[in-house]
Design goal:
Layout (H helix, E strand, L loop, with lengths): L1 H8 L4 H15 L5 H9 L8 E3 L2 E3 L3 E3 L10 H6 L4 E7 L12 E4 L4 E4 L8 H9 L6 E6 L10 H12 L5 E5 L14 H16 L7 E5 L5 H14 L3 E4 L13 H7 L3 E4 L3 H15 L5 E4 L5 H10 L3 E4 L1 H6 L2 H12 L2
Parallel strand pairs: 3-4, 3-13, 4-7, 7-8, 8-9, 9-10, 10-12, 12-13
Antiparallel strand pairs: 1-2, 5-6, 6-11
Helix pairs in contact: 6-7, 7-8, 8-10, 10-11, 11-13
The protein binds flavin mononucleotide.
Length: 343
């Protein structure tokens, strides 16, 4: 059905259609029976899909990646759509509008998206207000970042603020230093700033009555040397896991017309062009971190086969964004069925 709907949806500006579909789902979710209807269509449950990682039990290993529901507006609906977990954010302390529009583009020839959203969000407290009212018990991750106006020297204060605000309302945290769309953010991936930031957040978590898992989200564009640094830092700071990967700055091997691509401008590419690279990063991390270290694999999962590739590369859980846009809501069920077949 989505095959027929997609050409129509793709006629409309991607950010507008995202907001429109979001609005409809939010409105309909208040109607009695609507979420049960979604569950009937899209949820696939089997106890063999359950996975326990960093002390949390996930109903299935397929999550929705950060950026899709930045402001926690659709957590219950995403649970009904069959996701095993929902990562909200990236959230920043203060609301911010993000970059000027247009800032999200489709690259259909490449089954990809290009975005330079720039952490547009309504601020962490607005998300907290919504999380307080959520009904489902789906696992929620809080992906946190810094405001554009906050200099890197005081970035840790933004992460601390978001952590404290969300602490009671999410199950795990993701420290995002890998978005290409906030100027200077990726500099926080350098060895010393990253070690300090992760230590701060991890210590904060340990100071709470119940520590919550702290994960790091990394870019796919890191060299082997930089990945080695990450492996070392993760061990030293004892963070609980890695989310690999964010979008790529690379424009290599794209099929999209270079002139059109040039006109789109800066941003991170997601979807099919990322499939191979993010699996490579996961494989590298798995080799360096050993068998037990939690890794969430994300990047270019467009099919059940891509999902299996990520799991075989060493991911414990997986997340989707662009594949969901291109393949539609049935993809989650199809992936879970395939995982079960291959167990
Ligand atoms: C429009 C858009 C917005 C995104 N926003 C965020 C974000 O706020 N924080 C984040 O950590 N990742 C963000 N991402 C990255 C995704 O979470 C994911 O890491 C990336 O898109 C690769 O997965 P995919 O190929 O399945 O899309 C965004 C991606 C897209 C396409």
């Amino acid at each position: 059905m989505y095959k027929f709907l997609r050409p129509l949806l793709f006629l409309i500006d991607p950010e507008k259609i995202h907001a429109f579909v979001f609005g409809i789902l939010r409105m309909k979710s208040r109607l009695p029976g609507f979420t049960s209807f979604l569950e009937f269509l899209f949820r696939f449950e089997d106890h063999r899909l359950k996975k326990t990682l960093f002390g949390l039990t996930f109903k299935n290993p397929v999550g929705i990646a950060a950026g899709f529901d930045k402001d926690a507006k659709l957590v219950d609906v995403l649970a009904s759509l069959g996701f095993g977990f929902v990562e909200i954010g990236t959230l920043t302390p203060k609301a911010q509008p993000g970059n000027d529009k247009p800032r999200l583009f489709r690259l259909p020839e490449d089954q990809a998206l290009l975005n330079r959203m720039g952490f547009n969000n309504e601020g962490v407290l607005a998300a907290v207000g919504r999380l307080k009212r959520r009904k489902s018990s789906v696992i929620v991750g809080g992906n946190i970042g810094k405001n554009k106006s906050t200099p890197n020297a005081s970035a840790h204060e933004d992460y601390v603020y978001c952590f404290n605000a969300l602490y009671q309302y999410v199950d795990y945290f993701v420290v995002n230093v890998s978005s290409p769309n906030t100027p200077g953010l990726r500099e926080l991936q350098e060895k010393e700033p990253l070690r300090r930031l992760l230590q701060t957040v991890k210590d904060l978590s340990l100071s709470k009555p119940k520590a919550k898992p702290v994960l790091l989200k990394i870019a796919p564009d890191l060299s082997a040397g930089q990945l080695d640094d990450i492996i070392e830092i993760v061990k030293v700071t004892r963070v609980d896991g890695i989310v690999a990967t964010n979008t790529t700055l690379s424009r290599e091997d794209l099929l999209t017309d270079p002139v059109r691509l040039d006109r789109m401008g800066a941003g991170g590419v997601s979807g099919r062009p990322l499939t191979k690279r993010s699996a490579e990063v996961i494989r590298y991390l798995r080799a360096g971190l050993g068998g037990d270290f939690p890794i969430i694999g994300v990047g270019g999962i467009m099919s059940p086969e891509d999902a299996l590739e990520k799991l075989n590369a060493g991911a414990d859980l997986i997340q989707l964004y662009t594949g969901y846009v291109y393949q539609g809501p049935a993809l989650v069920k199809r992936i879970n069925q395939e995982i079960l077949k291959n167990q």
